[in-house]
Automatic annotation (TrEMBL):
Domain NAD-dependent epimerase/dehydratase: 38-175
Protein name, entry field: NAD dependent epimerase/dehydratase family protein
Coiled-coil intervals, chain numbering: none
A Pfam family matched in the record: Epimerase
Domain of life (superkingdom): Bacteria
InterPro entries, A to Z: Epimerase_deHydtase, NAD(P)-bd_dom_sf
Source organism phylogeny: Bacteria, Bacillati, Actinomycetota, Actinomycetes, Jatrophihabitantales
Amino acid sequence: MLRFGYRVGMRIVVTGASGNVGTALLLRLGATGEHELVADAVVAASVPHLVHQSSIGAYARGAKTPVTEDWPATGIGTSPYSVDKAAAERTVNRVEEHATVTRMRPALILQDAAASEIGRYFLGPLVPKALVGRRSLRLAPFSDALSVQLVHADDVAAALDLVLTTRSGGAFNVAADPVIDRAVFRRVLGGVGPVVPVPALRAVAAATWRLRLQPTDPGWVDLGSGTPLLDTGRLRALGWAPEHDAADVLGRFVDALHRGAGRPGPLLYRRGRDR
């Protein structure tokens, strides 16, 4: 698990990622640890603007309809990642009486350079990269209840730059069109697998996770099926618009997974190569 904050002039940006470990440990090390330290530092140093890189995962369960930023950010209790994101927001919220606080809530962030890292995180070492590509994934089961949003990392960076420049406070949803559902998945990859109910997908994820066959806990299925879609109107009103189409981002990312794309560094190193 990595979590860090960095200072930009007299503004502080906090970002992070949570691992597939126990919720209590995540909260002790993450949301109630480093975030508290950063929040205390903002107040102590009289920093006027705190930008917190949160996630769509902070939202409570909802129907698959677009919601604005006033949807409850209380998380989904069966997802350790979601619980952590909601707790982190509660921690930084206490800074609001001392500084402008911005909470960025992006959908799933993808870029080619992160393919190896994300593959290691969600697929693990037992899945050969040669088997992860358009030909194989077009056979993957896809529930009718699943619809997810994506956004390219460059577009998230542009959103961060915008709120830093304008010093805009409050929460901002960040996502690109179109929503990835069965129809879009089929169009991008040339096919789609059978319709499998979410409970069955969760059962398979839980069983293979407990057997240590893959690193993705079943809470991620709950997150993918339970989070609402994002209305990005508030961010677009500031002048933001994604340059990358979500369907194109998905297709390029699948190709990057297949070739094991990455970059030098402790996290982005290419799969199969020494760090």
